[in-house]
Design goal:
Chain lengths: 744, 520
């Protein structure tokens, strides 16, 4: 039928060999459907019923997921096969044989100023496609869950409007084909996060938590913006890849030669051939040690004698500061635990599965640039590991069920940055994906528990819930196993390979070798802590005797089906998603990124003998690591089970030794922010206020205004209304001009 | 002569024909039905715009997008669309077309602003509408005139019509004063222009726009000639020191005519400034080099170079004076007149082009200028439109106080007026911001950053008087009870429609400037 359509509309389906273009036009539906849902819920919230508003929002998310799936399939396999179901058997074959064909849809020019151009364009390659599927897929489930969880809330439509707006912004962030669009999405998700954390804004603490999240993010955003500016200075463009040809057509009839076709940033960096053990790059065309060729970019003035590598390094460092804010890394992590003030599904979607991983996504998106700068990569790995261990230690003593999960999220994000810093970008994304499943599951499970416990969040008042809430218990147990890294669950696959890569790096990286060993050790300890606090949570919540008061106890119930169905679905993914590790790990250049093997010369292309040796070495490393990580995970789980299940220990929340005090008080870092940093800012602001009133308001503003009025009044006398006076003015002016011109 | 060649001038032909039709129709229509004339005139303007659109597409199809500017040296082959007409007397290029569009919009607004039910019979006679259309035709001709003879004739077609129109409110003393001042000073400036043209012809034996190219040994005379021509044109533009007529003439003329002068006349005059700057100011110098019998020539830009700083100084003076004096006006119409002077100053910044600038830079400057003219045209027309609606017992209400509390009585009109004022001040989401941005950017790229900085400062100062209107409308308490609500004219819905349209366009051009720059 499509063939007949194509005969009817020859121009409509432009590329005859496949239907890529058609899907390209559909790409914009992915962010626009949630936007439509937002508009409906925002403007018709007074008129449509509660059921309708939840249905609209959920449907918008589900349809976005459907379109995303279609587009992804169209990229991954020949879409003719995708369209006609009876060839389904061929799908597998195509997946393996045919490279992923990115889609780049161009919808128009947004800004075209001074040689700088930003487009409305969406770009779906393996990386953004996968993220889109996760965002819309998990998003749909959480929308569905929310229809049950938020059932009693009076601002039902407002909630769903925000949630849909968040999806729109997140999809713009992921799919945008240039940094400016990504930044718009970046700010958009920040805004939605703020709105949803402070969703119950009548509660002063919750509103303050929203403000805190916003402020911490602003600090990071400053770095991100500066990073974008640096990249504009270096490349003169913000496009990831060159826009499609139609967008480049430009000419004017004064016969202006069309400017050379702009290239995207990643096009410049794409010709990296390989990275040698010292972290130096061998490039196809650009030599990293060369001076920048910045002719025609503003960078000439900004970086007069910088090398390409140095300028890119600066940009990457600044961009990573942005990622630190958004993805809650040390020292900008403190907003995320407070963000738990929002409704629990929001914590699951925004503060665990999607938004907080935006920083990881951005680093992966620009991985070709980060590869230019091994020192920045090392910094990324350091920050990631420090955050992973720091947050895991705090998680050991928290008693609020959501706080435990929040610190665990911070810690897992640390692992992702550790992977990115080690050059295993695809593994970072792998962990993003598996983490999205099991952490969303854990949050939704926690939500189910809180729902059943009449909004009680303190684990000390729970216990024994496995009898009352069997579905929640089983699904949460699966999620916990995945988070703890129990063998063959999703979390095990991703975390284990990350640590394996770090261990391998310690052998192969001559410049930072021992550092990598230290990071590996810390990573293992954090893995042990993770397993411990996860099963501490399970033990305190689901085992032992119920510690709730009678009234609550009588009310405990399993959640309705709209809430348990997402739990079961996510549990299935948390169990099984790990099995796609093969695709992440060994397929050449998955996600368009070098695989970890490429990165440290274990799998050098085209040299057969060395390759086997290197691979054997890698297998050895992997096996050693497997032993250690399994020990850490099983040890942590066992210890927690002994303490909290067998002995039924319940922490008192005060006293204890030095370590527990430190951990419970978050090593006093957050207190430091609250007391010292914010007070210093307030003092500074007071000073500025005084200076503003005295200097700016009084002297400058008033002074200039008065001076301007006087001048105007004086000039008025020239406008006498007499024609001969005017004519005289013209004559004098003409004479002056004549005189000046004849002199020149 | 091939008549199809004149297709390119069709929009002008349409307007001229309509003006004749209107004059003849006025003979057969009863006086009370004369409002039909203005509608016929508007229909003519719309037809003209349609013809312009058709021509624009033909031009774009022939020469690719965006068709900007043809200088006299461009070799243009015979094709389906010929921008160069009648031996170079007219060049109907993209820039000229954008000016024509502004003139047509201004004409439509001027036609709709009239109130024929007033007892002032002059306003409602057929000649009045015919003259507006004639003036518009003159502006359109001026926008594409490409030799000094057609330039002079077009200028006079436009000017003579506006002299009469300025005095058309016969019972109003101020209108008579306005017409007389305009006529005397206009004639004075035209004398400069004609002297200039005569000198140029004497020196080069040519009236073509690129005549200065062959100045040769008569360079001083050609320089003097161009200076005199420029004085004539800068007078029409209202640049300091040739601005003094503007406030008196604008204030006295009927509001619709003031809008026509502030937008149409200014746009047409700026078209001439552009042609002078980018074409007439070039000169050919013969190099002593001879290779294989070919003598080599080099185009030099002595005039462009000499004029640059003068233009910058004139621009600064114009901006500063216009804005400073506008602050003290209590009459909104007079305030808008001074604001018009200031905007001429901003526009002059777009013509600061470095002597060696190539086609791409000139294109950028011209885009800035034409965008500015369109944006300024749209928002100024809208503001004058609102002003002409403000009437009480047939007397215009032009004082600041008259705007008090307008937002309560006519929220939509007040909103539009606020949009126009903020846009004129150059506030971001509106067209005025982007227009100023483009102009300042082009000044900076030519190395006149100081001029751009001064421009931005004066633009900040201008916020004061534009906001006065907004504050009056929205924040000032509506005075004593019983303060009369502004009455409206009989067929105001057409004018209201136009005001809403210009309001929307002001916002649209600010939000999507790219949409327009696709057109040029």
């Amino acid at each position: 039928m499509l063939d007949q359509l194509r005969d009817l509309f020859p121009g409509w389906l432009a590329r005859p060999d496949h239907y890529h273009t058609w899907y390209e036009q559909m790409l914009c539906l992915i962010p626009l459907l949630p936007l439509l849902g937002f508009l409906i819920n925002a403007f018709a919230r007074k008129t449509i019923s509660r059921g309708a508003s939840g249905a609209v929002a959920t449907l918008a998310a589900a349809m976005a997921f459907g379109v995303a799936l279609l587009c992804y399939m169209a990229c991954a396999i020949d879409s003719q096969v995708a369209t006609v179901g009876k060839y389904a058997g061929m799908v597998q074959e195509h997946l393996q044989s045919r490279p992923f064909q990115p889609m780049h849809a161009f919808y128009g020019t947004w800004l075209d100023v001074g040689g700088f151009r930003a487009n409305f364009g969406l770009y779906m390659d393996e990386l953004s496609g996968l993220m889109t599927l996760v965002v819309t897929g998990v998003g749909t489930l959480i929308h569905l869950y929310s229809t049950g969880y938020m059932g009693h809330d009076k601002s039902y439509a407002r909630y769903f409007a925000y949630l849909n707006l968040f999806l729109f912004a997140m999809l713009l962030l992921v799919l945008g084909d240039n940094l400016i669009l990504t930044f718009v999405g970046w700010e958009g998700v920040g805004l939605c996060s703020y709105l949803l954390i402070g969703f119950w804004y009548t509660d002063g603490d919750k509103a303050a938590a929203g403000m805190k999240a916003f402020l911490f993010n602003r600090v990071g955003d400053l770095g991100f913006l500066l990073g974008i500016f640096t990249l504009i200075a270096v490349f003169g463009t913000v496009d990831y890849v060159a826009p499609p040809e139609a967008a480049q057509a430009s000419s004017a009839v004064m016969r202006v030669p069309a400017p050379p076709a702009p290239k995207g940033m990643l096009d410049y960096a794409a010709n990296i051939k390989r990275i040698d053990p010292n972290g130096n790059l061998t490039l196809g065309q650009v030599d990293a040690s060369q001076k920048l060729d910045l002719s025609g970019t503003v960078g000439k003035a900004v970086f007069p004698s910088w090398s390409f590598k140095l300028a890119i390094g600066l940009a990457c460092l600044l961009l990573f500061v942005g990622a630190m804010g958004k993805s809650a890394q040390l020292p900008l992590y403190a907003w995320l635990p407070d963000a738990m003030a929002g409704p629990t599904p929001v914590s699951a979607l925004i503060h665990a599965a999607t938004m907080v991983t935006a920083g990881v996504y951005m680093v992966a998106r620009l991985h070709a640039l980060f590869l230019f700068s091994p020192h920045v990569m090392m910094f990324v790995a350091f920050v990631g590991t420090a955050t992973a261990i720091f947050a895991a230690l705090i998680g050991l003593t928290q008693t609020d069920i959501k706080k435990v999960l929040a610190y665990s999220t911070v810690s897992q994000l640390g692992y992702m940055f550790l992977a990115a810093g080690a050059g295993a970008f695809s593994l970072a994304i792998f962990h993003v994906v598996t983490h999205a499943f099991f952490k969303a599951l854990l949050f939704l499970g926690a939500g189910s528990v809180i729902h059943g416990m009449s909004d009680e969040q303190d684990m000390r008042k729970m216990g024994g819930l496995r009898k009352h809430m069997p579905v929640t218990f089983v699904t949460m147990l699966i999620g916990s196993l995945a988070l703890a890294g129990f063998p063959f669950t999703a979390g095990w696959f991703s975390k284990d390979t990350i640590l394996a890569v770090v261990l391998a790096k310690s052998h192969d990286d001559p410049s930072f070798g021992s550092w990598w060993m230290a990071l590996y050790g810390l990573g293992l300890i954090a893995a042990f802590c993770t397993a411990f606090y996860t099963f501490r949570l399970v033990g305190m919540t689901f085992f032992g005797a119920c510690r709730a008061d009678e009234k609550t106890k009588a009310h405990i119930h399993e959640s309705p089906a709209v809430m348990t169905i997402p739990l079961i679905t996510l549990a299935a993914f948390a169990l099984l998603a790990g099995w796609m590790w093969h695709a992440f790990f060994s397929a050449p250049h998955f996600l368009g990124m070098p695989t970890p093997l490429d990165n440290f010369n274990m799998n050098p292309p085209e040299i057969g003998v060395e390759a086997t040796e290197a691979q054997e070495h890698w297998h050895h490393v992997h096996l050693v690591n497997l032993g250690w990580t399994s020990l850490a995970a099983l040890g942590g789980i066992a210890l927690a089970l002994v303490v909290y299940v067998a002995k039924g220990f319940v922490p008192k929340g005060e006293g204890g030794n030095v370590f527990t005090t430190l951990s419970r008080n978050k090593f006093y870092l957050e207190a430091f922010y609250d007391k010292i940093v914010s007070n210093a800012f307030i003092l500074f602001a007071e000073l500025m206020h005084v200076a503003d009133v005295l200097l700016i308001d009084t002297l400058l503003v008033r002074g200039v205004a008065v001076a301007t009025r006087w001048t105007g009044a004086a000039l008025r006398s020239l406008q006498s209304g007499l024609v001969n006076f005017y004519a005289g003015g013209v004559l004098v002016g003409a004479l002056v001009i004549l005189y000046l011109l004849l002199l020149s | 002569m091939n008549w199809s060649q004149l297709n390119e001038l069709l929009p002008i032909g349409v307007v001229l024909t309509t003006s004749l039709v209107v004059v003849f129709l006025s003979l057969v229509l009863a006086p009370k039905d004369r409002y039909v004339l203005s509608l016929v005139g508007v229909a003519g303007c719309i037809l003209g715009l349609l013809a312009l659109g058709k021509n624009y597409h033909a031009l774009a199809a022939e020469y690719g997008q965006p068709p900007v500017f043809f200088n006299g040296l461009a070799r243009v082959a015979e094709g389906a669309y010929n921008p160069v007409l009648l031996g170079g007397a007219f060049v109907v290029d993209g820039f000229g077309m954008s000016i024509m569009a502004v003139a047509l919009l201004a004409g439509a607004l001027a036609l709709l602003c009239t109130t024929p039910h007033e007892d002032d019979s002059a306003l409602s006679t057929g000649e009045y509408f015919g003259l507006i259309l004639l003036a518009v035709a003159g502006m359109m001709l001026l926008a594409v005139a490409h030799d000094f003879l057609t330039l002079l004739i077009s200028l006079e077609v436009m000017s003579v019509a506006t002299y009469i129109l300025a005095g058309s409110a016969r019972r109003d003393v101020r209108s008579g004063e306005s017409a007389l001042k305009y006529l005397v000073l206009g004639a004075f400036s035209t004398a400069f222009l004609m002297f200039g043209i005569a000198f140029l012809y004497g020196a080069t034996g040519s009236l073509a726009m690129q005549a200065p190219l062959v100045a040769g040994e008569h360079l001083p005379l050609v320089k003097a000639a161009l200076a005199l021509i420029l004085v004539g044109v800068l007078f029409k533009v209202g640049a300091v020191p040739f601005h003094s007529w503007v406030p008196d003439v604008y204030e006295g003329a009927p509001t619709g005519i003031t809008a026509l002068m502030a937008v149409g006349v200014k746009a047409a005059a700026f078209a001439v400034v552009a042609r002078l700057c980018f074409e007439a100011f070039n000169m050919v110098k013969e190099l002593p080099k001879v290779i294989n019998g070919h003598r080599f020539i080099e185009i030099v830009y002595p005039l462009r170079e000499g004029w640059l700083s003068l233009f910058a100084v004139l621009a600064i003076l114009t901006m500063a004076l216009g804005n400073l004096l506008a602050m003290h006006q209590n009459n909104v119409k007079r305030m808008l007149a001074y604001s018009g002077i200031a905007h001429s100053g901003y526009l002059l910044l777009a013509f600061l082009v470095t002597p060696k600038a190539g086609g791409a830079e000139i294109t950028q400057h011209l885009q800035a200028a034409s965008f500015y003219l369109l944006a300024y045209g749209v928002m100024t027309l809208g503001a004058f439109g609102v002003l002409s609606l403000m009437r009480e017992d047939g007397r215009p209400m032009e004082k600041m106080e008259d705007f008090t509390g307008l937002a309560k009585e006519h929220p939509a009109l007040a909103l539009c007026m606020a949009v126009f004022m903020l846009s004129l001040a150059g506030m971001p989401p509106f067209a005025g911001f982007f227009a100023k941005f483009l102009v300042f950017k082009s000044a900076v790229s030519s190395g006149y950053a100081w001029a751009a900085v001064l421009g931005i400062l004066t633009s900040v100062a201008s916020l004061y008087y534009y906001l006065r209107v907004v504050v009056r409308m929205y924040m000032a308490p509506a005075g004593a009870e019983g303060e009369p609500a502004p009455a409206r004219c009989r067929y105001a819905w057409t004018l209201n429609l136009l005001i809403y349209g210009t309001g929307a366009l002001t916002l649209l051009l600010g939000l999507l400037p790219q949409w327009l720059s696709r057109l040029y």
